[in-house]
């Protein structure tokens, strides 16, 4: 049955058609580039996801700076997507521009540690409270590495993830629950291995299921976002993380916290803000200020274990890629940690996001929509359900691609970019009150056109 979520389907269809037409009219240059790009790029885009925004054709980027994104047709957009966290601290931060210009003139990648390596290691340890680090290019790479190390360290083959989790292009993680049974995530291209053989999956916030899944001592690693952020947002119950840590320790299972998105919670991420005690911590996306960079931190005990594993089985580890830990990434990270991801920047981001969350709640309440708003620091999400879901399974059952797609398109037509695939909004250090005003006004305008009278 069609889920209406307080929206009138006839008004929605009329509105969507009008917005598509408005988009086409306003973006002739994007249309032309889309047509030319389709000659030599599969699906007309260099990464096939780029055509999944629900737009008549992709919006082509001219340039982006701070929280402002300008498309090739010259429209300036307030950017709340911020590269789906890749640019969470604003586009093209000046300290990163400086650091990158300096480093690129001195060589970007050489398979050697650069002179900034000791300093960046110190900054990571100080910020995230784990003593030992490794670098990769992407958070996906970091999660893959962590899974491999955990298996090697424990001698166990299985990992455990939470239903609805996303940790990047990591094969082991593409398992979910359907009616309580694990299935391979539908849609995977060319996947010939059955991930269910070594991946267990339970619902977030379900301690009994977690305890049962760990009971046989076969799980090497629990890989978790501290707040689920890729299926709308699912917050942990009070005391959930303490219990997760207690149960993993009791089962001899290592715990990896994936902070890639929850870095929005504070300068040291959610784990630091809530004194979690992970064995591994993964951080990626935003820490290079746009330069590809990710890292994973480990405890002293894990680091010693890693050394033992390598001593016992030297040779090619299967972990790492050629450009990982390159000099350019180190320069970008140092600039980010020292000059961009500051306590002041976080104060502004979190205050802006909390103001935004309050205004969204008021917009929803005024129209009596059965929707809710969740937040994790600088990250805000509106969800088409009356109450925030407590599990990924519940989160997967709500929402509406039609309504959310129409709102995303309508917002772009009103000079606001929000994240595709879900309704996530990020506040950067550069997000000003006029951007929040524009977002709220655009959303109200769109809602007034589609809400059931
Ligand atoms: N972990 C989490 C929690 C993520 O949300 C993502 C990407 N959305 C990743 C890891 C992977 O990041 P990347 O695509 O940069 O490898």
3D architecture notes:
Its cofactor is pyridoxal 5'-phosphate. This is Aminotransferase class III-fold pyridoxal phosphate-dependent enzyme. Pfam families: Aminotran_3 (PF00202). One of its GO terms (molecular function) is transaminase activity. Keywords: Aminotransferase, Pyridoxal phosphate, Transferase. The protein has about 450 residues and is an alpha/beta fold. It has two domains: about 20-40 and about 50-85 and about 370-450, Aspartate Aminotransferase, domain 1 (Alpha-Beta Complex), CATH 3.90.1150; about 95-340, 3-Layer(aba) Sandwich (Aspartate Aminotransferase, domain 2), CATH 3.40.640.10. It has 14 helices and 16 strands. Helix 1 (about 10-25) packs parallel to helix 13 (about 400-415), helix 3 (about 95-105) packs antiparallel against helix 10 and helix 6 (about 205-215) packs parallel to helix 7 (about 240-250). The protein starts with 8 loop residues before the first helix and ends with a helix. The model has no long low-confidence stretch (mean pLDDT about 95). 4'-deoxy-4'-aminopyridoxal-5'-phosphate (PMP) binds near residues 167 and 258.
Secondary structure topology:
Blueprint: H1 9-26, H2 28-37, E1 61-65, E2 68-71, E3 76-79, H3 94-104, H4 117-128, E4 132-136, H5 139-154, E5 158-162, E6 175-178, E7 181-184, E8 199-202, H6 207-214, E9 219-224, H7 240-250, E10 254-258, H8 269-273, E11 280-283, E12 294-298, H9 300-312, H10 327-340, H11 343-366, E13 372-376, E14 379-383, H12 392-397, H13 401-413, E15 416-417, E16 424-426, H14 433-450
Parallel strand pairs: 3-15, 5-8, 5-9, 9-10, 10-11
Antiparallel strand pairs: 1-2, 2-3, 4-12, 6-7, 11-12, 13-14, 14-16
The protein binds 4'-deoxy-4'-aminopyridoxal-5'-phosphate.
């Amino acid at each position: 049955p069609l889920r209406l979520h307080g929206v009138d389907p006839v008004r929605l269809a009329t509105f969507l058609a009008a917005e598509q037409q408005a988009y086409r009219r306003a973006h002739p240059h994007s249309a032309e580039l889309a047509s030319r790009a389709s000659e030599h790029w599969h699906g007309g885009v260099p990464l096939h996801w780029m055509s999944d925004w629900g737009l008549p054709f992709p919006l082509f980027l001219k340039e982006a700076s701070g929280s402002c994104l300008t498309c090739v047709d010259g429209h300036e957009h307030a950017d709340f997507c911020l590269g789906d966290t890749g640019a969470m601290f604003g586009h093209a931060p000046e300290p990163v521009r400086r650091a990158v210009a300096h480093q690129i003139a001195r060589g970007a990648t050489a398979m050697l540690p650069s002179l900034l390596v000791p300093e960046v290691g110190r900054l990571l340890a100080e910020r995230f409270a784990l003593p030992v680090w490794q670098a990769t290019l992407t958070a996906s790479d970091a999660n893959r590495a962590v899974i491999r190390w955990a298996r090697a360290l424990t001698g166990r083959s299985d990992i455990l993830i939470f239903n609805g989790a996303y940790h990047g292009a990591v094969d082991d993680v593409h398992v979910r629950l359907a009616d309580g049974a694990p299935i391979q995530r539908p849609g995977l291209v060319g996947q010939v291995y059955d991930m269910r053989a070594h991946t267990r999956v339970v619902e977030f916030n379900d301690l009994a299921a977690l305890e049962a899944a760990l009971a046989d001592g076969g799980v090497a690693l629990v890989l978790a976002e501290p707040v689920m952020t890729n299926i709308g947002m699912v917050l942990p119950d009070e005391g959930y993380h303490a219990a997760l840590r207690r149960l993993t320790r009791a089962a001899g299972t290592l715990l990896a916290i994936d902070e890639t998105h929850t870095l929005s919670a504070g300068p040291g991420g959610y784990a630091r803000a809530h004194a979690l005690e992970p064995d591994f911590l993964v951080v990626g996306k935003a820490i290079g200020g746009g330069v590809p960079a990710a890292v994973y931190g480990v405890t002293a005990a894990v680091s010693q274990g890693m050394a033992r594993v390598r001593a016992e089985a030297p040779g090619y580890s299967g972990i790492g890629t050629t450009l990982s830990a390159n000099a350019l990434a180190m320069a970008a990270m140092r600039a980010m940690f020292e000059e961009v991801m500051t306590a002041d920047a976080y104060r502004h981001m979190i205050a802006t996001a909390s103001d935004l969350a309050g205004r969204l709640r008021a917009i929803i309440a005024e129209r009596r929509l059965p929707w809710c708003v969740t937040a994790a620091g600088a990250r805000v999400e509106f969800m088409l359900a009356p109450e925030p879901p407590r599990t990924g399974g519940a989160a997967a059952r709500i929402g509406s691609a039609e309504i959310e797609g129409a709102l995303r398109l309508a917002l772009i037509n009103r000079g606001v970019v929000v994240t595709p695939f879900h309704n996530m909004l990020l506040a950067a250090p550069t997000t000003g009150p006029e951007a929040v005003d524009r977002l709220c006004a655009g959303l109200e305008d769109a809602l007034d056109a589609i809400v059931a009278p």
